[in-house]
Each structure stands twice: as C-alpha cells, then as structure tokens.
Known about the structure:
alpha/beta, binds flavin-adenine dinucleotide, five-stranded parallel β-sheet, globular, Rossmann fold, 355 residues, 2 domains, 9 helices, seven-stranded parallel β-sheet
Amino acid sequence: xxxxxxxxxxxxxxxxxxxxxxxxxxxxxxxxxxxxxxxxxxxxxxxxxxxxxxxxxxxxxxxxxxxxxxxxxxxxxxxxxxxxxxxxxxxxxxxxxxxxxxxxxxxxxxxxxxxxxxxxxxxxxxxxxxxxxxxxxxxxxxxxxxxxxxxxxxxxxxxxxxxxxxxxxxxxxxxxxxxxxxxxxxxxxxxxxxxxxxxxxxxxxxxxxxxxxxxxxxxxxxxxxxxxxxxxxxxxxxxxxxxxxxxxxxxxxxxxxxxxxxxxxxxxxxxxxxxxxxxxxxxxxxxxxxxxxxxxxxxxxxxxxxxxxxxxxxxxxxxxxxxxxxxxxxxxxxxxxxxxxxxxxxxxxxxxxxx
Length: 355
Ligand SMILES: Cc1cc2nc3c(=O)[nH]c(=O)nc-3n(C[C@H](O)[C@H](O)[C@H](O)COP(=O)(O)OP(=O)(O)OC[C@H]3O[C@@H](n4cnc5c(N)ncnc54)[C@H](O)[C@@H]3O)c2cc1C
C-alpha cells in the first residue's frame, strides 16, 4: 500500500515537472554563415507540431560572434520561427561536442522546451546524442514522421526499424524535452515568408577555452562534394545493370539531363559507386523532381530514400518488381537495350528545345 502510494506521488511529481516544459525548438545548424537547409525543413515541421499544441517555435543558434547570425535568425523567422535563442562566443567558431552540448543543455534547462529537433547530419547526430545523454531524456534518431498524439499530448516519432522492414513509433512520455533527429530532405521545405518577424534572445555561454580539451587544429574540406540530396534530377542504377561497364548508361543519361547519379546499396558494396551516391535508408534521402531508377527492384530500404520524389520512372525487366507498386511511370524491359534509345530520345528532345 505504502509502495503504491509512493509510486503514484512520484508519477504526479513527474507529470507536474513535465507540464513546465513548453514550446518546440529547432537547432539551427550553421557553418561559416551557411545554414544547413535541414534546419528550415525542421522549422516547417516544428511549426506544424507547435500549431497542434498551441505553442511557439524557437530556433537555437550557437556560433562565433558575427552579423551573419542575425541574418540567419531573420531566415528562421521567414521559415516560421517565432523567436531565436542566440549564443555567440568565439569558442563556438568550429563545432566541438563539449561547448555545443554545454550551450544547448544550458538553454534547455533554463527555458524548458517540450520538443527539440535536430538534423540527422554528422554534427546533429553527435550533438543530439550528447545533449540527450546529459539531460537523460529520450531521443528518436532518423525519424521519417513526426506528429502530436493528442491523447498522451506527446510527440509520436516514427522511424524505420528491423532493417527498414517495419516502421515503429516512439513516444517519450516521462522525460522532457522529447528529442528527435531527422535526415535532410525527409521533410518538405516550408514556404519562405519574408515579412515574418520574431524575437531574438541573446544568452552567454560562460565557458573558457581552457575548459575544453579538444582543439581544432585544421579544417580539411572534402572536394567536389556530391549534392545528391538537393538535386532536382537523379538517374540511379541498381544490380539489374549486370556489370560495372553498364553503369556508363546511367552516366550518359545523367549527362544529357544535367542530372546527378545515384545507386542502390549493392552497387556501393560492389565498389561501382561511391557510398556518397547511395540512396535509401542507410544512404541519402532525396526529393528530386524526377528520379529514374534503372534495374532497381524497389526494396523498402531503397524506397524510403525516394518517397519524396515528385516523379519516379522505373525501368525493370520484371513486371512484378516492387518498384512498379510506387513508380509513377514504368518501362518493362531490358535496361541495357532501353537506355541508349532513351538517352538518344532525351538528347534529341533537349536539342530541339534549346534550338
Ligand atoms: C539494414 C539495411 C539497410 C539497407 N539500406 C539500403 C539503402 O540505403 N539503399 C539501398 O538501395 N538498399 C539498401 N538495403 C538493401 C536492400 O534491401 C536491397 O537489397 C537493395 O536495395 C537491392 O538493390 P537492387 O534493387 O539494386 O538489387 P536487386 O534487388 O538485386 O534488384 C535488381 C533488379 O534489377 C532487375 N533487373 C535485372 N536485370 C535487368 C535488366 N537487364 N534490365 C532491367 N532490370 C533488370 C531485376 O528484376 C531486379 O528487380 C538495405 C538493407 C538492409 C538490411
């Protein structure tokens, strides 16, 4: 009897504490004044969650001091944020886990948001894990859907599980904030409204360089980074191409269309393409206007990466291939024979338009 009354007292305590957390936050990822677009996609998504809850959306910017931070804040308002918490400090110039975790956890403990969203980028994944661990709260990584469950008044965060064969929905019921990461291009980019304004709250980090053991010695940028996630046109190859020499058919069509080149996981494993070009659950999520899938079966792990494409054209010799269940247009036949004619037809059509 005593134990059960203690338990219910404890449960009431937790519920009361949880009720003090309000609002939806998005961590705005910046690098030398450039904002990762996933931050705007998340502000758009955060706006929908906040409207359902009847609360505000705020962004968080952690950065070295500079006027550019105020431009980023203005962009955040245009995409739907009501306000921005801004911590400026030289220490935050290059990303390091310790000062960024300190800044974000300090803000959360002070202002208590009920939801905190971050991009599932290299930086976002590192920071989200460190912040969730420090705050001892729940984090659902790589979500593909977020909504408010009205009954429990909690965020329902959906993500693939069991190798992508199932989708599971996770709730953080007894801790706050409810945290989630979402990969770039999974959510739609919101419409920018330049007349929107918002509030900026400046906060001090209160940390010294001597407190941080990691130092940034050099910054080596990758060259010719592949912008697959943001390409409007993608031609993608799969195992149905048969051999590496046939991949030139993908390159040729992509060149004619001015498209990026992608592929399925087996092609990465076979060393035909760079892992940066892999599309799907463990690769990139894309949202092109046109996605041409050549010799790709359409396994669920590939499909989750292309669900946001406006138009999917599939070329496959098997009329029962799963890709035909969700492609907008399908060509049944041998890709090795079809591709040269298709490329030629596109070339002629484009030449006619240009002339
Ligand atoms: C945890 C996990 C994560 C994964 N992540 C990813 C991921 O991110 N991305 C990904 O792609 N996969 C991923 N996979 C693998 C996925 O399950 C599939 O095995 C993979 O997508 C299949 O690639 P494919 O369609 O190229 O090959 P296959 O499944 O072998 O399909 C080849 C297709 O080509 C067709 N074909 C054959 N010959 C021709 C021809 N001459 N002309 C036209 N069509 C032809 C066949 O009918 C077939 O449909 C993952 C799997 C797991 C377990």
